[in-house]
Specification:
Layout lengths: L3 E9 L30 H13 L2 E5 H10 L9 H9 L2 E4 L11 E3 L4 H11 L2 E5 L2 H9 L5 E7 L19 E3 L4 E2 L5 E7 L10
Parallel strand pairs: 1-5, 1-6, 2-3, 2-5, 3-4
Antiparallel strand pairs: 6-9, 7-9, 8-9
Length: 205
């Protein structure tokens, strides 16, 4: 059975996915809103996120997200969120980078330059591959349809600036909703999409 590539993103209503976890996570571009996700403690969405992490067997990450994860999760395998650290520490981590970084986190390896070929190889080796964060990598995966599912946890907040999942100039694409939206009590909504080809147009008159 061929494995699946799932993209997981925390996004605002205006599509910003930069630095949801903390103030110093990603300050590039002078982004002042790092940690915008933190005020939304949502047990329903938290359970959904945790269930997805428990099932994955490989991570596919962009360089910046890899560096953030590698600096944090190897040292946080205890406590309420320790299952995330333990899972991330034990599974393979694949990194997409234009450079030649030193990947010291155990189980990490650098992908080749042919992303389509690498995605096919990962699908042969793993069943449940997840891309978390990694907005620049995600935009390439979306443009080339190198994914099976896009999961957006959409938060009821507008920031007006920051890295967007779909910035101006993003590749046109059409998405198909997979299953019912899952709302949480804080207003966060989980939306799961599959690729559905290119957009089409019509005449509403």
């Amino acid at each position: 059975m061929t494995g699946r590539i799932t993209i997981d993103l925390f996004v605002t209503l205006d599509g910003v996915a930069q630095a949801p976890g903390g103030p110093e996570e990603d300050t590039s571009g002078g982004f002042p809103w790092g940690g915008w996700q933190a005020p939304f403690e949502d047990p329903v969405i938290g359970q959904r996120i945790g269930d997805g992490i428990r099932g994955l067997d490989a991570l596919l990450l962009g360089r910046r997200t890899y560096d953030i994860f590698a600096a944090y999760w190897p040292h946080h395998a205890d406590g309420d969120m320790g299952f995330i650290g333990r899972k991330f520490n034990e599974i393979p981590k694949y990194v997409a980078s234009r450079g030649n970084p030193s990947l010291e986190w155990r189980g990490s390896s650098l992908l080749g330059t042919d992303l389509a070929a690498e995605a096919a190889r990962l699908r042969e080796q793993h069943q449940d591959i997840h891309v978390i964060g990694s907005v620049d990598l995600v935009q390439t995966l979306l443009a080339e349809e190198l994914y099976d599912e896009l999961v957006l946890w959409t938060y009821p907040i507008v920031l007006g600036e920051g890295k967007k999942v779909f910035p101006n100039g993003a590749a046109p694409l059409r998405l198909s909703l997979v299953g019912e939206p899952v709302p949480g009590p804080t207003g966060v909504v989980e939306l799961r999409y599959a690729p559905a080809g290119r957009p089409t147009t019509g005449d509403m008159t």
